[in-house]
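Worked example

This section walks through a single chain of length 191. The input is the sequence exactly as stored; nothing has been trimmed or padded.
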Amino acid sequence: MALLTDILEFNDRFVQEEEFGKYQTDKYPEKKMVVLSCMDTRLVELLPKAMNLKNGDMKHVKTAGAILTDPFGSAMQSILVAIYELKADEVFVVGHHDCGMSSINPDAMLEKMTKRGISSETIKTLKNSGIDLNIWLQGFDDVSESVKNSVQTIKNHPLIPEDVPVHGLVISPETGKLDLVVNGYPKQETK
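Given that input, the structure is written out below as tokens.
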């Protein structure tokens, strides 16, 4: 049976049995925060629990590696919408140890793309159009430095208000322990 069929059959029962009721909340995050984290499957339930968050407490934006490289891409757009339209007052960037982005090899990924049917002509066209796929596909060597870079990209964005703290954390996917990388509060608040 196909995965889509399984999902749709489950969903029919979920709706008929009104299971959705226990997840209902409104569109505004209760704790007025937006979290940019990695899309790693180990964090789906662990990250909110480790941060004492329940359904409805946060807006959650996910990217591979919690990396924010394009200040005008969709992840940054989501953060801005969370702040200006959905009442988020703080931003948390949460990377994690043992991240798949720390081992990405752009050449190997391009080879995998070719094996999956992406033509070398398509890759060549992208490269000739000014897209450096090796940089675009590159991961990071140090998760803490990567989190700092994402924090700086957000904090220095021309559309982020100065009064919005942008914090950086790294979580252990094994234990849920959070390590502080960047405290985004003004110095007088860090006592």
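What to look for: The mean pLDDT is 94.
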